[in-house]
Amino acid sequence: TGQEVERLDASDGYLDDNFGAAVAIQGSVALVAADMNDDNGTNSGSAYFYEPVTPATGAAEGVVPRSLALQNRPNPFNPTTEILLTLPFDGPVRLEVWDARGRHVRTLLPGERLPAGEVRATWDGTDERDAPVPSGVYFYRAEAKNLRAAGKMILIK
Description:
By secondary structure, the chain is mainly β. It contains no helices and ten strands. It has strands spanning about 20-25, 30-35, 45-50, 70-75, 80-85, 90-100, 105-115, 115-125, 135-145, 145-155. The protein has a four-stranded antiparallel β-sheet with strand order 7-6-9-10, with no helix packed on it. A three-stranded antiparallel β-sheet has the order 1-2-3, with no helix packed on it. Strands 4-5-8 form a three-stranded antiparallel β-sheet, with no helix packed on it. The termini are far apart. The relative contact order is 0.18.
């Protein structure tokens, strides 16, 4: 009928991100691309996962993303980077840093209960003993309830 039944928005969207460049819907799940998003470098792109997507009853309402939005800035970085995590709900959150070989480097958020919304954590390029780590590629991984997200960052010294 052409009537809007659902509205999906990027939790961290900007004007030129091109949100909706591609959309895939299967059952009650939607995956939406933003191919010009700059979260992990110029025009690196992002994907947003929404569940469930259901027809609205009455006026269309925004859907709360059932995913974690995660990014770090600056990237590459030296000596520190800030990791931004957008939580769709209250709950325990764990945020860890791993090296390219899959070894645990540092826990930034140990699983404490945090409110929905934006959470910021700073990594200073050190391990659990506060010893500086070498230049290289590192990964950050967040877990909140049954949701997981990960990103890549580069430390340059």
